[in-house]
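User: quick one
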Amino acid sequence: MARRLLAVLTALLLVAAACNDDDGIDIGDPDDTEAEGVLIAAISGEPDRFDPHLTTAYPSFQVLENVYDTLVQPGDDLTMEEALATDWEVSDDNLTWTFTLREGVTWHNGRAFVADDVVYSYERIMDEEFGAANAFRFESIESVSAPDDGTVVIELTRPTPNLLANIGAFKGMAIVPEEIVEDGTIDTEPVGTGPFRFVEQRPDGEIVLERNPDYWGGDVALEGVRFRPIPDATVAMTNLERGEVHWTDSVPPQQISALEGRDDIVVESVSGGDYWYMAMNIEREPFGDVDFRRAVSFALDREAITEAALFEAATPNQTAIPEDSFFHFDYAPFEYDRDQAMELLEGTGIGDDFSMDLMVTNEFPETVTAAQVIADQLSEVGIDVQIRELDFAQWLDEQGEGNFDSFLLGWIGNIDPDDFYYAQHHSEGGFNFHGYSNPQVDELLDRARAETDDDTRKELYDEAVKMIVDEVSYLYLYNPDVVHAWVPEVSGYEVRADSAIRFENVSLSG
Amino acid sequence: MTDVALPPHRSRTRDVLGVLSKNRLAIVGLVVLLLLGVVALFGEWLAPHSPTRTNIPNRLEPPSLTHPFGTDELGRDILSRVLVAARVSLQVGFIAVGLSLAVGVTIGLVAGYYGRFVDTALMRFMDMVFAFPAILLAIAILAVLGPGIRNAMIAIGIVYTPIFARVTRGSVLSVREEDYVRASRSVGASGPRIIVRHVLPNVMGPIIVQTSLSLAFAILSEAALSFLGLGVQPPDPAWGRMLAEARGFVRVAWWMGVFPGLAIVVTVMAFNLLGDGLRDALDPRQKSVIESRGHLL
Amino acid sequence: MSGYVVRRVGQAVVVMLGVSVIVFLLVHLVPGDPIRRSLGTRFDPHVYQLLYERAGFDQPLYRQYVTWLGNALQGDLGVSFRTGRPVRGMVLERLPATMSLAFAALFIGLVIALPAGIISAVRSGSRTDYSVSALSQVGVSIPDFWWAIMLILLFSLTLGWLPPSGYKSPLESPVGFLRHLTLPALSVGLISGSILTRFVRAAMLDALHRDYTRTARSKGLPERVVINRHVLRNALVPIVTVAGLQLGFLLGGVVVVEVIFAWPGLGRLAYDAVLRRDYPVLQGAVLLVALSFVVINLLVDLLYARLDPRIRYE
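Assistant: Done. Structure below.
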C-alpha cells in the first residue's frame, strides 16, 4: 500500500512540474486566463479595508492610489499639482480658497463627478462622529461649500499655507461618492475617479483592478493591475526573477548591488523623503540634560548605522529633510567623535553602571538592526544599552505612556514640514512623546505654520531646525531610498520619492 | 511495607545503562550533548571574538582563517556567536521543558491516581490548552508577559505541559492497579506518599523519553519564535534568531544560515538519538507511543 | 457505546467553552491597544475615544465576554477591527486553504512515514533501520521555515518547476492549485513525515513482539502475510491516533510556512490579527481551529474504539 502511495505522490509531483511549460517570462499558470496587458504587482502586505478615510495601512493605499483621486496631488517633484481641481485661488486674507473642478470627470459607476462630492467627502472626514484617521489634517478648515457644480470653496480658521498638502498629500483624503458609503460597499468595492476600476479582492488576497476607459488623465495603457500580497522579501524577489510577477516594492537592500548587474531585472531607486531617527525621553534623567543627548549624538557613527541598516540604499542626515527637497537645510554639526562624547558625559554625572533601554519594533526590522549598531557604539563611551524589541501595538502603547528611555522610529510619506516638525517638536505637538519643549522653537513653528511666503517660511523652519538639531530633540539618522524592481517588459514606471505607486502611465510589452 | 511488594524499578537502573551503552547512536548523542554542555558553560572563553562587536566594513565576509564561519550582516564573528548562543539555546530547552515536566507530571500523577472528578477536571483543562493552536498560544503568552528569553521559556513550557500530563496520566492508569500500589494502599499509606514512592518511579520511563524528545522540540520552538521576532532580545545571539536573521541573506551569504542551522540540527539530533536510546532501554517493547506535538509548526 | 459517545461529546463542549474563555481573557490581557494600533502614529484623541467606545471597550470585561459568546453561539463572530468585515466570512474564507494544506501535508507525511517506518521496524537494527532513523532525525531537526526557503530556492528559482508562492482555488484551476500547494505541503509534510516515521516504527515494533505475531509465525505463515495481516493491522490503531493529532496541529495553522508562501490560511490570518490586535478575528480564528481540533480528537477516539474493540467505554 505504501509503495502505491509513494508512486501516486511521485506522479502528482511530476504532473505538477510538467504543467509548467514556461521558460522565461510568461505570467502565471498556463491554465490561467490572464489578459496580456495585466500587470502583476507583488506588495508586501495585505490591504485591510478600502475606505480611504478609515484605513491607515500602506498596502491599502498602494491599491487606492490607482483607484481614487484627491483634489490636488503631489507631482514628480512632490509640489502639489492639479488633479480633480484644475485651478485654485486664495483670498487676500488667506482664509478662503476657491477651487475650480475639472470638467467631464465621471465616477467608475458612470455618474458625473460634481462639487457636492467634494463637500460630502470633506465633511465626512471632518465629522466628529465618524472617526476618520486623517481628521487632524482638516483641523484649520472652518467649512467646505459648493456654490455650483464646478466650484468648491474652503473657509479656514487661520491661514494654512500647506492646505494643498493637507488635502492632497496622499489618498487618505480622497474624494469618494456618497452612494457607496450609503450602501456600505466602500470598504469592499471602492468606486473612484482614478485610472483603474476596482474589480474584486479574491479570497486568496489578490486585488484585481481593470483599466478605466473614461479616465480624465488620458488613455491608460494597461488593461489591468493585480496586486498580489507576498510578505517575504526573498520570496517576492524569486517571484520577480521567475516572471510570476512584473513588479515589486520588496527589494532586500542587500541584494540591490547584485540585481543591478542583471539585464532581466530593472532596479531603480530615488532618495526618499522618509526619515529615521532616535528619540530620548527628555522627561527622564539623564536624558533631560542637553549635554547627555549631545554626547550620544557625538558618539554615534551615522555612516555605519546607515550602512548597517540599509547598505547603500540610504543617506545619512542630521536633519529630517533630504537634500533635493525645497525645505532641505544643510546642517550637520555632529562629527563622529568619541572623545568629545566622553567629555560631555563626564559633566552629566552618570555613573559607571549607567544603563538605558532602546525601544525598537520588529514591524520595522531596520530599527532592530540599527539598534544593535547603536548599542555597540554607545558601549564604547561607557553607556550600556538594553534593546527592547516589541511588536508595534505594544510599542505604540509604551510610547504613548512615556514608558521608555529612548526609541527608534521612522516618519514616512512626508511632503510638508509642518506635518512633522510641528507634531514632533512643538510642545503641543501630537507626536511629541519624548517631551521636547522650547518656547523659541514653538514660536518659530507657529509662525511657519501660517506664513504664506515660501522663502520666509523656509527661513523660519531653518531657524527652528537648527535648535532642534543642536539640542538633539530628535537624533536624526538617515533618509532611506525608495527602491522598486520590475521586469524589463514594464515601461513607463517611475519610482516616486513619496513611495506612492502609480501605474497609470505604465505599459507592458511582450 | 517494602517486604509486601518492592517496586521493580531499582533493579532496572543497571539494565538500562547496559542496554544504553550498547546503543552506539545513543552514545554518540550523549557525547555530543556533553560537548555542548562544555560549550554552553565556557562559550565566552572559547569564542575567538566578541559575539556582539559590530564591524560594518567587515560585514558578510565568507569563512576564512580569522572567521572560520564568516561574519554576519553587522560584521560580527559567526563562530563566536554560535558558541556563545549554545548556552541560550540549551537554557531555553532545559528550563522550558523542566517547567512543563514539573507541572505536567504533577497534573498527570494527580489526575491518574485519583481518577474520577479530579481526573476529568484536570485533563479537560489540559485539553483546552492542547486545543489552542500552539504557536498562537506561545505568541499570546509572550505578548502578555513581554518578549525576552525568560518569558519565551515560560511560553514554551506552558505549550508543552499538556503532553507531559497526558503521557504521565496514561502510564499511571496502568500502574495504579498493580499489586505493590494496592498493597501500599491497603496498609494505609497516604495518597501523596504512594504517588511519590510507588507510582512515580514506575512511570519514569515514558517521562524520561518524552523529556529528551521535548528538549529537541523546545529548541526548535525557540527558532520559530525568534523567526517571528519574539524570544531572545538582540544583540544577544541565539541559534534560532541567527537562523531567522539569515533568511534574507540566503542568496548573498549562505554561511549566515548554515552554521547556526547546523548547530540546531546537531543538538536536536543528539537529544533525539539519546531519547530513542533511552526508549529502547526503558521501554523495550515500545509500549508507550509517545505523544508529540511536533515543534510549533 | 452510545453513552460513551454522549459523554465524549459533552466533554468536547466543555472544552470548547473553556477555550472560549481562555482565548477571550488572553486576547484582552495582551498589552497593546487595538485602537491605537489601527490609528497608528498620528491621530486625534477625539477619534480615539469614539472608536474605543464603538468597540465596546468601555464595558466591563465579563459583559464583553457574555455579549461575544452569545453572538458567537448564534454564528455571529463580530466585525473585524481591521477590515470592518464580519469575522465569520473572513474565517470561513480561509478554511479551504488551511484544510488543503493540512491534508496535503498529512498525506505526504504518511506517504513517507508508512513505508519508511514499516521497513525500519521489520529490519530493526539493520543498516536500513539506521539510515531511516538518521534521515528522520534530520527531517525533524530542521526548522520548517528553513525547509520552506530551501525548497523555494531549489524547485522554484533553480529548477523553475513550481511557483514560489501564492494560492489558486481548486475550483478555478485544479492544476494551478496543485502546483501552488506542492511546496508548502512539502515543507510541512517532510517534518510531519519524519515525526510519523518514528511512531510507525514504534507501533510496528510493538506489534511485532506481541503474542499474536508469534502465534502467526509459529503457524508457518509467510512473513509477508504475517506483516500485512497481523502486524500492520494492529499497528494501525496507534498510528491513526497520532496521525489524527498531527492533523489537528496542522489545522491549527502552520503560521510560519503560511507567511513565507503567502498562503491565505487561518494561521496567517490569526497571526496578522495578533499583530494588529484585531480581537474579534483572533477569537474567531482560534475558536474555529480549536473546534476542528476537538472534533478530530473526538473522531479519532471513536475510530479508535472501533478499531480496537478492547477499549472499555467506562
